[in-house]
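One such shown below:
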Amino acid sequence: MASNPYFSLVVLFFAALGFGLAPLALAWLWSRAFAPPRPNEIKNAIYECGLESKGDAWMQFRSAYYLYAIIFLIFDVEALFLLPFAVAFTGLGVSACLAMLVFVLLLVEGLAWAWAKGVLTWA
């Protein structure tokens, strides 16, 4: 059985599985031994550590708030892409600079569209 080329792979798979599941099993056993469940009315309440909710949880928001959030995410992702580019700028070629220029121009186009549509006005 040890001559099978996949035997070591199967052994490593089960070792990794046991390495991940063993702490979970030990934590579950520890909680069963030292913290037995004692349900009561207070523990079973909807909000154990806070205020009781008043009214309905469904509220209507203006659709402009969603546009603000989307624009924020777009420019947040822009920063995520521009930072590695700025760090490695000196080692990059012309094609990488042109690709980043196209990326920034597309973002500027989106910002110009949002500005022209009046999305950025807080009213």
